[in-house]
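Q: Given only this backbone (317 positions), what sequence would you predict?
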């Protein structure tokens, strides 16, 4: 779950995959590298994944509506790297005639997805498959008409091989929608009045280094230029469209958005500590301290702003 330069350490859409995430969500996925390595335990991140995916739902809903214009009546939709199934549920709502299958590598997240389907009333047309995306999406009863992968592909070592597996699972004429990249998430003004201005830009630089290490350390890692339309073309998919969706929650934010900002900044503080300067760590500590009047708990100027890019391709008939 995700952030390649549009992901972000501490977010994740309700998705995950490979390695154990399926992927995230959050920005579809929350990257959280622990203090000493780059393995991401997505099952542990369940509350964070749900938190982000629910907060970002308006943007995901726009993406689903856009996909419905291109593919109005899919019989089977696969959410590859589904995490706890927030976006799976959104697809079930937007495509009431479709069966939805959530695929993920972490059974605790799939259990949450099934419980969510029961609560929201679409369990009769919902299923789950536990599978690592490096090996495709498991055994589907029949080929998918729409396959959605949100910030899950970048958690697979060999992204081209995983995409090839996705294509195998698509019906002829089927649509593949890949959410990767976009823009890093911003929560704070450039100058917060504490510490050196430009904190988030420096966090992003450290995160990019972490992300590169994370990719390198994945099993079977293959370096790949992040030209997603070219990658779709390379695996036999005809790239048909690209569109970016904005998440724009301006100040003053809701309690839910403030809670998400605190979660995301806490994950960055924990996961990127080794790469950040002492001054920036001290600033983050103040921003996270509920007793500090300059903290996110009390500030009126925090916001959530990011952009998520979706690349769409169609399998030849």
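A: Predicted residues:
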């Amino acid at each position: 779950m995700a952030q390649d330069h549009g992901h972000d350490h501490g977010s994740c859409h309700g998705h995950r995959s490979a390695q154990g995430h399926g992927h995230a969500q959050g920005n579809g996925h929350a990257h959280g590298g622990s203090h000493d390595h780059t393995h991401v335990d997505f099952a542990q991140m369940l509350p964070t994944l749900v938190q982000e995916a629910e907060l970002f739902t308006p943007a995901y809903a726009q993406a689903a509506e856009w996909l419905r214009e291109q593919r109005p009546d899919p019989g089977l939709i696969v959410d590859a790297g589904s995490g706890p199934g927030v976006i799976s549920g959104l697809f079930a709502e937007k495509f009431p005639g479709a069966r939805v299958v959530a695929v993920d590598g972490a059974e605790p997240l799939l259990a949450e997805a099934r419980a969510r389907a029961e609560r929201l009333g679409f369990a009769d047309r919902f299923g789950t498959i536990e599978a690592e995306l490096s090996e495709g999406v498991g055994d589907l009863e029949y080929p998918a008409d729409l396959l959605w992968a949100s910030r899950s592909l970048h958690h697979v070592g060999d992204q081209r091989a995983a995409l090839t597996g996705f294509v195998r699972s698509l019906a002829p004429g089927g649509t593949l929608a890949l959410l990767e990249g976009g823009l890093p998430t911003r929560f704070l003004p450039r100058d917060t009045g504490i510490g050196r201005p430009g904190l988030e830009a420096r966090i992003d630089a450290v995160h990019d280094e972490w992300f590169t290490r994370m990719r390198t350390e994945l099993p079977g890692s293959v370096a790949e230029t992040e030209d997603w339309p070219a990658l779709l073309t390379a695996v036999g998919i005809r790239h048909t469209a690209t569109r970016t969706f904005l998440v724009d929650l301006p100040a003053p934010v809701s309690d839910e958005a403030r809670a998400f900002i605190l979660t995301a900044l806490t994950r960055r503080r924990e996961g990127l500590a080794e790469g950040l300067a002492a001054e920036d760590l001290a600033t983050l500590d103040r921003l996270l301290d509920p007793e500090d009047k300059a903290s996110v708990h009390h500030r009126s100027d925090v916001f959530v702003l990011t952009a998520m890019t979706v690349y769409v391709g169609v399998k030849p008939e």
